[in-house]
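Researcher: Next entry in the queue.
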Amino acid sequence: MIYLLSPAWCGGKRAQLLLRERASFPLAERLRRPEGAGIGEVFSFLSGLYFRGKVAYVRQFAQAEGSEALVITPTRGLVSIETAVTREDLLEFATVDIATNDERFRVPFQRDIAGLAARPGNVVLLGSVATGKYVDALVELLGERLLFPGDFVGRGDMSRGGLMLRRARENVELDYVPVAGAVRHGPRPPKLSRLS
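Model: Structure for this entry, 196 residues:
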């Protein structure tokens, strides 16, 4: 099974804080070094609960032999969740809006999806399926092999993140359905109860 994590937005206040030249907290300092910091950790900082939930989820369930966790990036296609990125990489990511079909996103993304399509097994998208910004290209090349958690329908980013955190803690994997032909928009489910 391949778990595919949609990207974090590389703009906003959290990005400004992380990218400040004089930021002195450990993640910002590591990001300025040539060896950088893991993209999973960096994107978790940028988007908070949402990406943190994805990371916890894949670390819990992508341990089976042959499983892999990949992150969609704005300019580098698909990379391992452990791939190191630097401050310069984030500045580059921030110049691309993936919703505009920018070729700096589209070309490496389609290249890497084609590589996934040539491999056996299913791909689970841990991200929004409500828009076509990356879903359309994934469905085109992966067809019925592209799955997503059915419980995501109607949930916002934070709710999806909270749901993944809960399932990781409970060690109960979500149920997956094919994206092709699925209901991708629906009523908002009840709020999740607060974690203790």
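Model: Residues 60 and 171 are 7 Å apart (CA to CA).
Researcher: Noted, moving on.
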